[in-house]
Amino acid sequence: MSTNRTDVRRLAQRGSNDRNAAYEILDAAMVAHVGIVDEDFPVVIPMLCARDGDHLLLHGSSRSRLMRNLAEGCNACVTVTLIDSLVLARSTFNHSANYRSLVVFGNARALRKLEAKRAALEKFVEHLLPGRSADARPGNAGELKATLIVAMPIDEFSVKARSGPPVDKRTDMDLPVWAGELPIITRFGTPIAAPELADATDVPDYIKSLFPHA
Question: Confidence class of residue 214 from pLDDT cuts 50, 70 and 90?
């Protein structure tokens, strides 16, 4: 939904209200920055995030100031940014980055029922590491009670993105300076076993599949 808050004013051609693009960004992201105003002071906290249909999921301790505010339905702004590459121009002024970003405004609601909370936590786990929820012990009633989970509708939002090569001034085109795109790739590393892990416990296949040389 386009509103005054979501209209992209600076480089408006890079902005959109494409819902599928918003979902793709969230599905590729692990961290969102969640902003609220608490006691007349702005607070922005990085948090793990996940998506459940047309809702953004956030979770944290029931003692968390941020989570309590979100659960009470305060105004919130959630942002996600994915950096795809550095864009190196012939002049430093025209350097840039290729990125995909999402800003969501709205009010979250708390998930109160244990089954809803358990399902949401499974969404988190499967988003971060598909296959893990069927392997590890699920949260018990006490752990779920100590956790606040909120769902925020992905309704009032904007997407902004840049892609492609650098844009140099025509007068810089003959400078003997390398220009182009430098891709940024995030990947998993070799797993490190926890202390006191039983020797017979193998790395599961869903983790091995993430890196061929594990």
Answer: very low
